[in-house]
Amino acid sequence: MRIGTKSLLFGAHQFLIHPLFVLAAWVKLYGWPEWRMLLAIVIHDWGYWGSPNMDGEEGENHPLWAEDVFYTIAQSRPRWWSSKWSQKWMAAGQECAFHSRFIAKRWHGEPSRLCWADKLGTAYYPAWLWVFLTSLTGEVKEYMDQRKYEIHLGINAPTDTPWQFFRRYKALARTWIREQAAKRAESGPIPA
After folding, report:
1. Alpha carbon separation from 178 to 1, 5, 52 (Å, rounded)
2. Which of 3, 7, 51, 140 has the largest CB neighbor count within 10 A?
């Protein structure tokens, strides 16, 4: 079984646990989501299914699966439904795609609200649960070895334990959320 599938079944992106933490973070950051966003929160990571890695090329492109689901729905609307209906589905698809900071950067966009809810939602995991799940699937090794992340700056990561790594992640995620809150305060509320 590939690591992406394991992550969805019993790892860090477990299909029931992870969306609940992301939903809790979304509610804290933005209030209760409208139903399309609720669906996006549930399926945004399902593109990991069958992925041979979490942070390689296939893993990085995992949000495109959920984006494609929303775009397909938007394009399949009956003629008598308004184009605004399609736009809302397309917007939910973009939330999914841009929940990856790498895809947002690649497409010259800003990370979506779902990105920050996803980061904070992961930080909500109790450390024991995150370490257990990621050790069970082997994800923790890939996360700790991946040198492209800010979490590794100035850190001698090979000496880290999974517990230390996740504690640093939690602190970094909270910093990202504070920075986003400051940006929102400067530019006004994020449109729904």
Report:
1. 38, 32, 33
2. 7
Q: How far is CA 176 from CA 57, 118, 119, 153, in A?
A: 24, 11, 8, 15
Q: Could you write out the three-class secondary structure of 44-68?
A: CCHHHCCCCCCCCHHHHCCHHHHHH
Cα–Cα distance between 43 and 49 in angstroms, integer? 11
pLDDT digits (tens, 9 = 90+) for 51-74: 999 988 999 999 999 999 999 988
pLDDT tens track for 80-126:
667 788 889 999 999 999 999 889 999 999 999 999 999 999 999 99
User: Is residue 113 classed as helix, strand or coil in its secondary structure?
Assistant: helix
Q: Report how far apart, in Å, the C-alpha atoms of 99 and of each of 24, 116, 161 are.
A: 16, 7, 27
Please give the model's pTM, rounded to 2 decimal places: 0.89
* Residue owning tokens 């006004």: 188
